[in-house]
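Input record (one chain):
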Amino acid sequence: MTQTPPLQDIRPSPIAGRWYPGTPAQLTGLIDDLLVQAEVAPISDPIMGLLVPHAGYRYSGPVAAHAFKLVQGRSVDVVALVGPSHHPYPAAIVTTAHDAYETPLGRVRVDHDLLAALGARVPIHAVRHDPEHSLEIELPFLQHVLGTFDLLPLALIDQSYALAERLGLALAAELDGKNALLVASSDLSHFYSQPVANRLDHALLDAVAAFDPARVVQIEEEGQGFACGRGALAAVMIAARALGANSAHIVEYATSGDVTHEYDRVVGYGAAVFCRCASA
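The corresponding structure, as predicted from the sequence alone:
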């Protein structure tokens, strides 16, 4: 019997112990609490993808838990995790050059074979020791609700619809026939007052609920709604639709003001799922 060699080249976490608890017991306890507190109606239709926010768990964890709870216990071979890059690189899309990500809950293997196949369709630049939080912040939740899976991590610098469409279709082509879950990592509006944030965020989430990825990007270009990962979200929606999803459900929304009770400059957080609904 051939044994898989141990993962040696590990991406060190720049945010464990700061953005989320740094010990396994504390992290597991917090995620368990968030999942228990998340009151969300079960969805019987197959879930192809998620939208989840990516702030520190204190702020966005309660919102993210609503989407993650809906895939709890599912067995998945690969998670395609797509978010924005908050750091500049001379590329449209970046990924990790490391063999695995590490969190307090263990290591998540990167599927470099799948990355190579995807990279033949869209340009992807591999980097080392990246400081990006938008992808890593989702991993402990995914580890806790899914168990073991391989990872396809992608951080977008180019948030245009043209790239989102190209990436989304490429993801669908490479994931077709695989037991995969698509995850879009994105926060919503940043640093508006609570009433303005609510208006902008609901306009964006209306586009998500309508399963309109082009509108997700367009609405920001028009200044009517915002998502820092708009291109990532559009790409996941396009891929999910190409793989058979035909409906979207917004499962939670809140702002940082709902946590801090400071409403002058808030960040919006939304959670959604993309499903294949027989009755749609």
